[in-house]
Structure formats: structure tokens, C-alpha cells
Amino acid sequence: MIKIKNINKKFRDIEVLKSINIEVKEGEIHGIVGANGSGKTTLLNILFGHPNILKTGGYSGEIFINNLKSKISRPNDAIRLGIGMIHQEFAIIPEMTVAENIKIYRENTFKLTDKIFGKNLSYIDKSQNYIDTKSILKTFNIDLDPSLKVFNLSLNMKQFIEIAREIDRKDLKILLLDEPTAILNKEDTVSLISILKKLSKKGISIIYVSHKLDEVIALCERITVMRDGEIIKTYERQEFDSDNISENMMGYKVNKVINAQNREFKNILLKFNDFSVDIPGETVKNFNLDVYKGEIIGISGSYGRGNTALSWGIMGLHKTKGEIILNNKKLSNRNVSNILLNGIYMVPEDRRGAGLLLNHSVMENIIFTSLQMKNNFLMPYPFKLFSFINKQKSLDYSKKIIDQLNIKCSSALQKVNELSGGNQQKVCLARAITFDPEILFISEPTRGIDLGAKELILDMLISINKKKTTIIISSSEIDELKRICDRIIEV
Amino acid sequence: MQDRIDIPQIIIIIFVLIMMITAWFANISITYFINDSLIRLVMNGVLVLSLIPMLNAGVGINYGLPIGVVAGLMGMCLAVNFNIKEGLGFILSFLFSIPIAVIFGYIYSMILNRVKGKEEITATFVGFSFIYLTSLFWSIAPFNNPSMLWPIGGEGMRPTIGLKPYFEKILNNLWVIEIQKIKIPLGMLFFYFGLCIFIKFFFKTKIGIASIAVGENETFAKLSGIDIPKIRTLAIILSTVIAALGICVYSQSYGFIELYDAPLMVAFSAASAILMGGGKEGKTKVTHAVIGTYLFQTIYILSAPIANELLLPEVAEIFRNIITNGVILYAILYKNQKNSSSI
Amino acid sequence: MRFYIKTKKIALQYNNIVPIVFFFLSLAGLYFSKMDISFVVNEVIVRFIRDGVMVLSLIIPITAGMGLNFAIIIGAICAQIGLLIILDFQIGGALGLCFAIIIGVIFAIFLGTLIGISLNRATGKEMIATIIMGFLATGIYQYIFLVGYGTFLPFHNNEIILSRGVGIRSMVDLSIFRNTMDKLWQVQIGSIQIPFFMILTVFAFALVIKYITGTKLGQEIKTVGYNHEKAELLGIDVYSVRIKAIIISTVTACIGQIIFIQNIGMLNVYTAHLNSDIFSCAALLAGGASIKKAKIRHAFLGIFLFHTLFIVSPQAGQNIFSNASIGEYFRSFIAYGAIAFALMTR
């Protein structure tokens, strides 16, 4: 039914998919499992022609649907080929009704206006859409008024609407699902699985992406394991073995950097009491944690599931509840400059979007925060606000830290945009070191960086920690956390 | 990413060259051209410079330029109303308009800080509506110098107020030296380049660096503890104040204060000039403004005599309009892509 | 299976405030102007006919999430091009009008496509782009008719050419079309004249817009307006939908301008189209539309409110301040201010 041949995909200079080959037969339910960042979602996005793929330079390789070589460069192409996708973030328009959402792009129209004006300018038959929607929801045992606006509904209901939209399609041949059970409870998961089994009996091929292994084993006929953008192994039903598969998923890596284990800490530096952060799609609820002076804590959890919310919350950039206690004092004034002056610094996960001034030089990036917050690197004039930079001092300092961290750049005045991902991350860290915080929050420090640079970054974090900086790392790479953290907390 | 010369700049430069050659054949005197271009550079240049602070702080092009302009007009009207003449009158115009511009700029910044992402369109309409709001003010303003009021009835301001008895060309005629019929208005040029240097240095100070960072990447600036609304407010006030000074310089050179809806479209020629010079959001340099103004004004000066030569005088005006808006549209359509924030 | 329905919040939306403010301003203006009510009603009816279709042309781009389409001014220019070409060839009466419409619409489709393609490069900045496009198009249009005719374009009708032999006069007479539509089915009730045919024409266009929003295309336009990224994931060709929305708008505006000009009976060649965009936008917003949501009832209500204020304010200004220009400045302020206010409100 669908055959993927030799698919490769690069984001900037990082290979995220390496010669992927998968074949899915008619009516087969094929599971794809892998850790976060293994490339599962990217693969689905390629099959569905997600606009981001084209924007980031497209892919190489071939896709065959029914033995026909097919070019999929936008979702519309995929839909014409009979491919449907259940998106993790839902492609639902909340302002529209349930019926409108389910029948979108396939509305029933009046025959008469079809003939006069053609399908596109034909008037929509709302009552027929209503009836259709009602009946498709019935097959899920859902009794819901299709004229309700979707934003009124609960999350799991939205998930079923997303699924109903695809299943309602008469021409559906291949269904792609990206973590469809992430927000469903057990009961709902069971009912989803039975729906999918029915579909496969009708001859629809299903590609099911999930990191919940037991679910995949229960549902799928074959399972492909991905890791770091490569296919590790494809299992047939009779070979299923959850231990083997999960070992495949995690893989075995050389643990070069290992922090001194079993360190003991006494003084509590920072306390989170019932701390909640509300970022759309990324919430932390009632979080409690004592951070001891001098330790490295890992916050693990999959990307986009709340592990980075903590650092954004503490910087006061999003709505929060609960309290933060720093050095036995309640931290009440949480605007960013006050947090920074209290010695808390954050390196965000989105380097290019939030961590760097891409059009500015390495030097300007390194000194920026210290310059603005601590008036370092300024000429000794009385009016600090209108004072000029001490260029010589900044340049000398930048050169020193560039050498120290081994940042590969032509000079301290080179634009950061021209550096590689690993070196950009080093510049981010250099700014943190220059600021010399007491507590450093860092999110996804090794995301999008090649292997060699990863080790260097981790090494660097340990050496920062040795200079008495407490570090809290949020990462979805549990393996790395295990290597450098004193303890790891799951969100 | 590099500061390459863009296609429209090449076109404009070629175009200016063609105009110069045409002017040569049409016997338009070189001295006239040079004298006029230097004066027009400063006359319009200050208004163009006023766009830089907002552009660099990420607020976009200040299509609400009329707000600063009105502040300057009010300052001048106050000076004229008190019948203060010569240099003192001009300096007082500055001093009167600055506090007005600060207040206007502050209120204006409150509006623009509400509408992040659509500052430019909002600024356009705030500027337009402000012109008509102040037109209401001009028609009932309690000024009493009869040379500013309607001769009949004596109420409401005249649309154009002659500055001859006050400070007409006071800056133009300051320290003029003449070299072979070419008059160099040193005082005017000193003022202009002084302002250029002030703006250039402003962006080298701590707060100037912060404002450029806000213009390039707001999240970055926020994470480094910078108070974004404060920086934007400062940039907007600075732009408004410079615009107020700009209209004072313009009016003394032109010889008239023009009230009511005369400044309605002032923002667009200024915007076009700065874009012509290569200005971009977050990284506009003073040189962009200077080059842009000079190119724009060259077109302005040469188009009129050439059109007259062709016996179609209206063409000059229409032509300038097409160029003004063509340049802005090009910038919107081809410079709209911001840095992608994905990994 | 369980699901939860959150209670709907009921709040007074700002959309309601704008019409209320306009209503009271109009009422106050009416009182101070001391104008004859039936005169005002007659005037408003005339303006409803002149401006109605133009205001309706704004609805579809708003639904598509592109904001106020100031480029309807280009639709108006297309109409004037159509009329001028017909005048040049001196085809009068209903036939001429039909030709003018056909030529105008062809231009509108072509230019609408061009605008649409350009706007796909300016996502998020559509409104400022359409304003500048309007200015630019005005410049080019003026250049062609002021310089082109008699130089690189041949003319056939000496009457409309300036005495120097180059360029079209700034004011041309449309007597050859006069009374082709306006006086059809005109009914007099008391001192109020109701031209039924023209009113029905405006209603017919309202119906067309209403019909389009109810079609598959209309549903796609709505989806793109709510969220163009999701619309793309649902298989909708976002770019082509946006282009179609602009074409519909430009064509409607073109027809609106033809109705406007033939109703006046004279064509101000170089200025008739100016401000058609601003006043139409202001009227629509006065009726309670926002830059994200606009309906036909907003258009109709807005025309009545805005034009009542427009008609009475000079006289009101004259009576209160003994200065008619105050009223004129006031109404311009209201027109631009309404748009500025709509942009400021979320």
C-alpha cells in the first residue's frame, strides 16, 4: 500500500532522518516507536506533506502509494492520495461547530447548485452535514450535538473529533496517527483501539506513532523501532518482546561524561511550593521541589510536555501560581530583571529564537546580559544608562572566553548567525558564565547539536557546576541527564 | 543577511543617473542643483532621521509621523504667537515643541504598545485621525497674533502662515560660505550632521544597545531582563521629538507653517526615503537615512524641471508618488521575512 | 463517554459600543444641524445606493483573515477605466453601461489576482500593503490617463481630452448613461423618494455575498480566516483561497464604483475613487464589524449610521461653532478614528 524508500531529511546541518525504508501493507497496522527526537513525527510529517518540511528544505527519497511513485509536497497532495493524519496538536478550528469541523473540505452540498455553479460554489447543505456527523459520532458511541462550537468541548472530545474527521472520509486509504492517546484515559484508549482495528479490517493501512510501548504491542501487526533518525529494527508480530524493543529504543551510548556520584548537599537554596505554570500546551501543576546548593538536577519529560515550563515560569514570563523561596526568602517580585539580579539565569531551549541575537557579533552576545543588568563592560561615566561600552575590555574578555570554551569563530566580531549549532550553544553558555549566576536553568542543552559537541556542552555544564553554580537541566534526553545529574525528577 | 545593495537601490541609482544626464541636456544648472540638493537634504532629512529610533526598536516604520509633526507645528505657532523673531524664535520653537512632543509621544506609545504586530497600520490611522483632530484644534485655537489668523473674522488659524517676519530661512542662512557660486549652508549642515552623530552614538550606549536587541529579538531581550515596553516607549518618544524638530527645520526653510491636513501624507515620503537608503527593521543606520534622503530629494529636484521641459508639469508630482509608494511596497513584499525561529 | 461543556461567558462586546456611539453622535448631529428629517433620509438612501456595494466588498477579505482591504480603491479604479474606455468610444445607454461593467470586471479580475498574489507575500501585513497598493495604483492610473492618452494611447473622443491634446479632462460628463438605472421603479412616499430598483440591486449584492459565504468556497475562506496554518493541514490551498477572496472583493468594488459614478452622473477622473476605501471601511466598522469579523448587517447598519453623521456634521458644526469646516474635520476625524479604534481593540 505504502512504501517509503531511502528517505533522508536534514534540519540545517543536522540529519534527523537517515535512509528510512518502511513498507506497510493494505489493512496493516504498523507501529513506529522511539524515544523523543528519534524522528518519528518528522517521518509522519513528510508523509503528510507538512508545510514545515518544505520550508526547511524538503527531503530526499521516494514514496510509493499503491506502487505508484508519489510526490507529496503539501497536505493537499497527501489528502488527494487518500492519506489522512491525526495531528498531535489537532487540526481543529475551535470557533467552528463540531459538524463543520468533521465535514471540513468535504461538505455536502445541494445538488441543484452543484449543477448551476459547480461544486466549489455550491451551497452547503447544513442539515445533511448535521445528520452525517451525528451518525459518524454514533459509531464511537458519542452522543453529541454537532451544532456545538468545538471550543466548548473537553480535550478528549476534541481528540475524537479529530479522528472522526479522518474516518468520515470515503477515500481514506492510509491513516497516520501521531501520539493519539497522549491525552486519553484508559477507557477512551480502549475505544480508540477498537475503532482502529475495525478500520484495518476495511483495508485501511494505519501507521501508528507512539512512545507507549504496551499500546503499540497490543494494536500493531508490525513494529518499527527508530532511534536518532535511523531504523534500528522492524519486528513481526511473533517476535514482539517489550524488553528487546525498549532496549532498542533507548540504545546504548558511550557514557564519557560522568559526574561525581553520591555527592552530599546540605543547604537548601531554592524551594518550589505548589508551583504551577500555565503555558499553552505546556503546563506544570503543583510542583514541589527543594534545590540544594551546588547540585545538578535533571528535569526529565518529553519535549513539549512541561519540562521547560518550569524555567519560563520562574523567570516570570508566564502566569504562575504558588511560591518560590530563595535563600529562605520568598521571591515575590518576579520581573525578569529582579530574578536575574537575584542570581537566577536561564538558557532557553530555542537557541535561535530566544537565546541569541543572530545578527550581532559573538562578543555582543556574550556580554549582553552582564552589560544590561550589572553594568559590566561600561565606560566609567556617571550616567550608566547613556554610557558607552568599554570596547577594549569587552574584546579582551570575549577573546579569553572564546579560547576557554573553544568556540570556533573567525573572530569575536563574527556574526553568531554564521556559527554552527554547537558553537551557538557555547555562545549561549558563555553569556551565562559571564553573568555568573548562582542558579542556572538550562533547557534542552544538546538539542540539534552533533554528537561531538554534545559531549563538550555536557562537560562544560559540569565545570560550571564545579564553580559553585547550581544547575537545573530540563531535557528529554534521559540518558544524558543520567550521566551528569545528581538526581532526576520526572514531570 | 549581508548588507548588500538591493535591486531597488540599483534601479533608483540608475534612475537618478539618467535624470542627471537628462538634466544636463536640458541645461539645468549644476550650481542650482547642488545648492538646492544640500538644502533639501537637511530640510527633509531630519524628518527621515526621526524614523530610526522606532525602526530599530522593532516598532516598525513610524507612519504616525504626523503626531510629531503636529507637536512641532504647535511649538512654532507658540513662538510666532508670542511674536518672537529671528534665531531666538527658532530656538524657542524647538524648546516649545519638545515637551509637547514628549507628551504626545508618550500617549502614542501607549497605543502602539497595545497593538504589537500591527503597529504600522495602527500608526497610519492614528496619524491620519490625529491630523483631523488637530484640524479641529486649529480652527478654534486660542491664538491671538493676527498674522496667523484668518484675515476675515479673526478666528481660526490660516492654513499657511508666512514666516518671513519671524524666522524664515534662519538656519538656511546660518554660516553660508560661497565657493564659485556654490553656496554651502554650513550652519544647516552642522545641525544635521550633529543630529546624525547624536543618533549614531545613542545606539552605542547601553540603552541604545538594549533597544536594538528589542528590535531584533524580543524574547532574547526579555530573558536578559530588559523592560520591553519601557524601551519601546522611549524609542517612540525619541522619534516623536525628532519629528517635531524636523518639521521646524522644514518650515523655516520652506518659509511657511502649513497647518490642517497639509502634513497628512508626510510619513510616506519619509518612509520611502529611508527604505530607499536601505533601512531595515532592527538595523537601520544613520547612513541609510542620509543616502536615502539624498536620493529621494534628487529625484524631487530633477523631476520638476524635466517635467516642465516635457510640457507636462503634473507628471512630476505623479511620478514622485509612484516612486514613493513603489519603494514602500517593494519593502513590504520583499523584506517581510523575519528570522525563522525554528531550530 | 463523558465530556464537559463550559458555560459560555456573556459579555458586552466592544462591537456593540461603536454603533451605539455612532447612533448618539448622529442623533446629536441631527439635533444641532436642525436639518429636515426627510432631507436627511433622502440623502441617506442615496448614499446607501452609492456606497452600499462598496462596503459589501470588504466583507469577504475580512472573513479570510486579511483585515480591511484598502485595495478596493483599485476596484474603483477599474470601474473608472471601464467607464472612460466606453466614453472614449462613445457607446451610450444601457449597452454602454454593460460594456463598462464588463471591461471594469475584466480589469478587476486581473488586478485582483495580482493583489492577491502580492498579499501572499505579505502575510500579517496585508492592511498596510493594501493601503500602499492603493496609493501606487492611483499614481499609475493618473499617469496613464493624464499623460498616456494622446501620447502612447490613441483617443477617439475629442470631448474628453484636454485642450492641449494630451490627457483626459479632470471632469467628464456621463450624460450618455444618465437615468439608465437610477430612476427605475422610483416610488415617492411623502417627501421621500425610494428608487426600488437600485435598492434591490444593493440587496442583490448582499445576497451574493451571503451566498458565497455559505458555499464550499465560503467555508474554506472562513477556515483560512480562523487559522491559516490549520487550514493548510486540512488540505485547503490557503494561497489560492486568499487570492479568490481578493478577486471577489475587487470585482464587487468595481461594480460598486460604477453604481456610485453613474448615480452622480459626472466622473471626477482623477479623484472620484480617492477615499472610497476609507469611508467604506469606516462605515462597515461603524456598524459593529471588527477587523476579524464582518457581516452584512454590520455593513447595512453602518452605512446608515455613518452617512447620517456624515450628512449632518458640517451643518451641525456651522450651527454650534459658526464654522462649517469644523464639521468636516470632525467627520474626517470620525472616519479615520473609527478605523484606528478598530485596530486598537482586540
| Chain pair forming the biggest interface | B-C, 43 and 39 residues
**Sheet of most strands of chain A:** 6 strands, mixed
Number of helices of chain A: 18
Number of helices of chain C: 13
Note the main sheet of chain C.
2 strands, antiparallel
Radius of gyration of chain A: 26 Å
Q: How many extended strands of chain C?
A: 4
Number of strands of chain A: 19
Second-tier CATH architecture of chain C: Orthogonal Bundle
Report low-confidence residues of chain A grouped into runs of 5 or more: none
From N to C, what is the helix and strand string of chain C? HHHHHHEEEHHHHEHHH
* Quaternary state of the chains: heterotrimer
**C-alpha termini separation of chain A:** 40 Å
The helical percent of chain C reads: 55-70%
Largest beta sheet of chain A: what is the strand line-up? 6-7-8-3-9-10
Residue fraction in strands of chain C: under 5%
Residues in β-strands, percent of chain A: 15-25%
| Average pLDDT metric of chain A | 87
CATH topology of chain C: ABC transporter involved in vitamin B12 uptake, BtuC
What is the average per-residue confidence, as pLDDT of chain C, rounded to a whole number?
89
Q: What is the terminal-to-terminal distance of chain C?
A: 37 Å
Give a quick precis of the structure.
Chain A has helices at residues 40-48, 51-55, 75-80, 98-102, 111-117, 126-139, 155-167, 186-201, 213-219, 242-250, 309-314, 336-341, 351-355, 362-374, 391-405, 421-435, 451-466, 478-484; strands spanning 2-11, 14-24, 29-34, 59-65, 68-70, 83-86, 174-178, 205-209, 222-227, 230-236, 268-279, 282-292, 296-300, 319-326, 329-330, 344-347, 439-443, 470-475, 487-490. With 491 residues, chain A is of the alpha/beta class. Chain B has a single domain, classed as ABC transporter involved in vitamin B12 uptake, BtuC (Orthogonal Bundle).
